[in-house]
Specification:
heterodimer; A: alpha/beta; five-stranded parallel β-sheet; globular; B: alpha/beta; Rossmann fold; seven-stranded mixed β-sheet
Chain lengths: 246, 774
Amino acid sequence: MKPKVAFFDFTSCEGCQLDVLNLTGEELLDLLDGIEIVNFREAISNRSDDYDIAFIEGSISREAEIPRLQKIRSQAKVLVSLGACACIGGVNCLKNHLHMEEALKIVYGDAAKYYDTIPARPIHAVVPVDFYVRGCPPQTAEFVNVVKALLLGKKPDIPNFPVCTECKMAGNICVFERGMTCVGPVTRAGCNAICVTGGRRCWGCRGLVDEPNVDSEKEILKKYGLTPEQVLEKFKIYNSYAEVKK
Amino acid sequence: MKGNSVLIVDDEAIVRDSIRDWLADAGYDVSTAETAEQALDIVSRRDFSVMVLDVRLPGQTGLSVLKEVKAQRPWIKSIIITAYPSEETTAEATRLGAIDYVVKPLAPDDLEKLIRETIESAGKEPTVVARPAAQPRPSARAVQVKKSVVVTKRSFKNVVENLITTMDVYGVKAKQGKYVFDRINAPDELALDYDITAMPPTVFLFPARETILKFKFGEAGKAEPVVDTTPRVIIGVHPCDIHAIELLDEAFIAINPDPNYIARRQNSLIIGVDDLNPSPKSFAPSMGTHVAENGFDLMLTDIGNKYMVMIGSQKGADLLVKYAQVTEPTAEDIARQKTVHDEAHAKYKIHLDVPRERVPRMLEDSYDDPYWQARSNTCLSCGSCVMVCPTCFCFDVQDDVALNMKDGQRMRQWDGCMLVDFAKVATGENFRHDKASRFRHRIYRKGKYVLERYGKMGCVGCGRCATACLAEIASPLEAFNAIAESMRAKQAAQRSLRETRPESELYAPRFARVMRVEQLSAKEKVFEFKFLDGKDLGHQPGQFVSVSILGIGESPFGVATSPTRTGSFEVAVRNVGSVTNAVHNLQKNAVVGIRGPFGNGFNVKAMEGKDILFIAGGIGLFPVRSLIQYVLDRRKQFGRAIVLFGARSPAERLFLNELAAWKNNPDLEFAETVDRGTPDWTGNVGVITTLIPKLQIDPRKTVAVVVGPPIMYRFVIVELKKKDLADENIILSLERRMKCGVGKCGHCQINGVYVCQEGPVFSLAQLRTLREAV
């Protein structure tokens, strides 16, 4: 029996779902040899409430999303957070420093009264999460690795070291040496430092490592010319949920 | 491969089969081949310990088989057999590496003995067979071309052009204002006058990720080793990196020869270049690695429009013969090379402060040095230092399965001891769980462990880790020098023993007269003291003194008056024990002993310009009073002064006149409370924390000075945190038992801190690191 896999989206852009199945035709067929996808709004119109593995995209930012998520959790044998919003709250949590009424007003203006919202939070803040596919968006390969690990019955190998490690392996010149700054030194690797390799810098979309030395990173950012406010901004973009919690 | 595998190559069936049967009976793993072609086909597919080879074969000769096998698998030992010995073939076979020569007809037991001895001797000395040709063994030195020649830059360009057409060429080129080793497609891309590359050239011998096995799983499971034998040349390797490669040779080849490393190493040519523009972070001369004598095929020194080229191997010599125009160096060339070497050497600005040989022993003796903890505090555990290091070679192994769930590969990937989970086992324990132990382990590897295990220092002084480390703590040179300094300080402390003048009066009190005694409440009295010699105490608010009653003993008391009030000082005493009882019995004009002042006191300089919130509970008022008086006497130097005082009951209030004066002083904001009221008490009732919520304070410019019983601290801190006061701006004074006051007796120690030295005044930020404190 092939495990039945379902995808669900909460507060998100649905880009993660599109990205994870960005496979070649042959790879996709191989994948579908191993699993049966029963619920996937981005690709198939059928829907089913019978599934084993649930991939959840997006963060939780409305009361109504909570019971819906809890229902999915009670059905799924394995629940996987997919993408930055689901794993760490992501950019949705940028609004958390505002009053919710104020946030609604900024976004919806006069129509604010028709909407409700709560401070955004990652999936694991609401229900237990078994595995994480990190990133904004996640890389197809990492999604595939997690699926393969689940099929093999082993724990996926997700690094608990900072992006710097993979950035050095990729042979990059350090962002700081190029006169810019990044949060790679405290951000969980697994992306092969794709942004730095592509000439950009790390914004921390994969969340922090288990034991981030945030104090030291902040001191380094200051040493490289950032004001304390700019330093906080660096962390806020993806990691304001973790930062607020501290 | 089995250790006793033998290949027999002979066209005579009777010889071949009889040797095969004899050896198989003796327990050998025997294969046979009839022809040269068959033999080569078998050798290309599998490995052997020993090849027994007939030199006369149909078609290709045995000697050509020998030559080919030597090229493919140089470690296979070959024994030649022939019915027609000649001196020429013997000499030729020996030149091609045959280890012995047996004449037919042969006695099978003699041959078996020879094979056994051959295998045994190979087992003892595996490095001899596996060592790449570029690194000469003493016995092989005779064939090395240890010679310097001159090649013009134009001619060298021609060498590179030709190499590009025949193999993968990697070399140093510029990238984003820095330098990297990368694929070279045209000679002009090379930047051989570079300072340092971001990543070392060892990445071509031990890449960040490589496949070591390919496998199929399921019922027909099998695993095949994978090696990379692509011919390549690495151009522009600095001497320090060549030393690093020699260390990797030791680590990967000396025991359990590593097939992946050896395949790459044997198929890589190394063209070095002297480092004439060393990075400011490099300290190669201190590690003895700024020059290289071995470990390269060619070594270039830029002497203007030409290179002085040292030939390190036959392959290097062949390269020059084939593609370059070579001339003998002139006296001028040799002088020029010496000059550029000397100039380069003078450019190194950082050096080891101790002889290199002393580093391992020094580290051995410094395992518990506070340096490891202190210096690793800002470590990001980001792994940059170990990733960019040319001598780091630790790795992780992971399986990668294809989506078809049938095929897969086992990969190895760089790992490093500075990463948090490096020493974590499946059950969850982490044997190097803290930054300090990881930091120390890395430095120990660099200066001690690797040296002891492989005979070469684990650091070649390239300076890459110091360049990559954002926290600026990674340089082994800095660690070695800091440890050396720490050891020197310890030695200096011992050396100066004879010259140290003892403080003979350290424990002897000065004498003071009681000028005034006042009863404060049932148990408390205040005493005014004046030194017999008329001098002032010379204290800071918040410091304490030891009051000595000879015959009874000595006890510490906070000074209750400000140093601004000169001539005398006051000490308030609660009568709780024998010394305090004796003090309480003192009358006016009595004489007591005083030692001190001791401790740090309040940092009044740091409080200038700030609003001060004084919170005193019970007799905590004594030391706080010294600071309140100080602030009142220098009122203009401070902002608001708010005093909160709490006593258990109206009867236990202290300094009643002063409390009344403070209440009416427009320079002070004053509030007080008692825990339990009495019928005639008209003031506040409630614990002191009830006064705090009503306050309006600016957390950015307020310093809270809190002194009272330990229980009070917990609750007051909670209330102050609600006012957003930073830990640095909450100042507390701790009471601890003290005997000596001079940092010796140990009674007042909390964790690593002596209250009489670093205290009694601490900020909450400091106390948060001292778990015994509150």
